[in-house]
Q: What sequence folds into this?
DNA sequence: AATCATTTGTGACGTGAATTCAACATGGCC
DNA sequence: GGCCATGTTGAATTCACGTCACAAATGATT
């Protein structure tokens, strides 16, 4: 059923056009409407308002007093509608405030370096970059995009893969000296781990055992709210942590952190995604532009760990 | 052909309702629309603007930046539309400037006395009373109502009869002394008349000859632009004039003007009408109110002329 | 984890309101 | 008085819009 039988905006538009052009036929031509269409529309408007707006003969149109007042208001209102829609539609060109939420390691190391170039390319965009590792509700946080590592929870969110990062379980030398380096995943039960204060999609750490992947995790001695905090804890010798190679690569090369159980999880990786809220409606252009920009420019080096002759680890590739 | 398929005002209204009530379903209930209807409408709007206005899950709605701006503007625009229509529709209660055009004799003697009461009853109406006897174009003069005596030219104008006035052909005593009182209409050819500067629907003066009505008119010695001017000319002895009894009754009773040829036109009358511009669209309330007021209160006395015993004329009835 | 209640999204469909078409009135101009 | 342009009216037509039924998703509840 047609509930909205009155299009006030169309009525106003036609009315204004009629007044401007001084005739139903002229207005009709401009509006691609037949004269009779115009006539009925105006009559409808007048009937609804309960008063006459235009005195008309076949030759002349004159506005009643109501008509004049209504005309002036209508012109203003139409202009404002136009502007409102134009401004809203300007979301079709990248501009406005873009809110990005990223996990801390990736944000620090891979997103922030790109920001200057992005802002340079889109001067009308201002950017709010929030770094958190906790799970967030995109809508509640009013974030346009979130960048997350690891498996995604199913939802109506759309994820665009930005890259992959190898993971490594590491410990500080002084920690390993105290607790002995684990030889098998089962040894982890005797170790101390660094966990997370927020729930992750996977509980433990994946290790390969033949063809199968098993999860194991040392009992947590501490929990960190983000990857950087976890790294610091690991550096401090609190326990073992599973972190991204792009994050702790330098620490490994410098010998501040030592990979363990490498042979059990050589292919342990986590995908990194930009996540946003789906295609039920067109995406604001600034969001689209940012995601495209990330997908194009983010290069997560995916180095492998090799043990050098002197026993030290190197990142190669 | 291109139809008016977009109803921007409705879209705005639905959008605002959704934001206010915080949900498609709630808004739908208020607007007597199904949730899916609301969903489609919003999607349509977003598609047209090319950007998303509302981030939505089944549980929460959040406005995008564009959505917030659009919401604020939309609220204002809707309010202004409301006000524009309300003000225009307030033509449904009598108010505003009412322009009335009346011929001079009737206007002076019968309309003006009623004005104070009318304005008292309708305090929001201001009145422009223009007195002219010349034919006017209602629309060109931007007049709402015209009051005219005599036959009307056919047009799309609507006429409402206000009354009837007996007419009389009169001359001043000094004129009649010089030219002799006419005994038959044919005698008028030897007389001098007072005509009009503007064309009238009937050319001459109607006289009964048996069952038939003939027209006759004395050659004009002067033309007047209005009835009052004609009366003055007649009083001055310029010639014969055909004037309304309500106009010159006092002159006749006082002997300043003398009726002639009374036996040939005892029923000579002219109807007096209020004329306005037809029912293609509703009439502004002030116009309707004024016409109704006139029709109710105007009482054109329709006296007959009687010759008293002393030879003087009296108005009776 | 699993169920339930609630809400939004999608495709097919039918309705009816709006527009067109054709014919007629009106006004101004020569 | 006839011609041309314009506005109006009634009936036929059509196409956008909302409904319907169903699917998917979300958050609360146990």
A:
């Amino acid at each position: 059923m047609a509930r909205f039988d009155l299009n006030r905006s169309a009525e106003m538009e036609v009315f204004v056009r009629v007044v401007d052009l001084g005739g139903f036929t002229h207005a009709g031509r401009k509006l691609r409407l037949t004269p009779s269409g115009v006539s009925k529309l105006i009559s409808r408007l007048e009937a609804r308002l309960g008063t006459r707006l235009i005195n008309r003969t076949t030759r002349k149109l004159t506005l009643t007093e109501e008509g004049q007042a209504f005309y002036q208001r209508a012109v203003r209102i139409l202009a404002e509608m136009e502007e409102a829609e134009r401004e809203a539609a300007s979301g079709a060109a990248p501009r406005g405030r873009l809110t990005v939420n990223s996990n801390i390691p990736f944000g620090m190391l891979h997103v922030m370096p790109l920001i200057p170039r992005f802002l340079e390319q889109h001067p009308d965009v201002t950017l709010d970059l929030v770094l958190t590792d906790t799970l967030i509700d995109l809508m509640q946080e009013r974030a346009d995009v979130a960048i997350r590592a690891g498996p995604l929870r199913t939802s109506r969110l759309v994820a665009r893969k930005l890259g992959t990062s190898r993971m490594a379980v590491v410990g500080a030398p002084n920690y390993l000296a105290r607790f002995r380096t684990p030889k098998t995943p089962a040894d982890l039960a005797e170790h101390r781990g660094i966990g997370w204060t927020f729930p992750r999609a996977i509980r433990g750490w994946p290790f390969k055992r033949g063809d199968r992947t098993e999860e194991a995790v040392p009992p947590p001695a501490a929990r960190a709210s983000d990857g950087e905090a976890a790294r610091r804890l690991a550096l401090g010798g609190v326990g073992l942590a599973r972190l991204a190679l792009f994050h702790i690569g330098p620490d490994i090369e410098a010998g501040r952190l030592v990979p363990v159980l490498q042979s059990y999880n050589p292919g342990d990786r986590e995908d990194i995604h930009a996540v946003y809220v789906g295609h039920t409606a067109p995406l604001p252009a600034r969001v689209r532009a940012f995601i495209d920009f990330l997908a194009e420019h983010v290069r997560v080096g995916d180095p492998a760990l090799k043990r050098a002759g002197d026993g030290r680890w190197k990142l190669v590739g």
In short: The CA atoms of residues 13 and 78 of chain B lie 7 Å apart. Chain B touches chain A through 64 residues (CB under 8 Å). The mean pLDDT of chain B is 87.
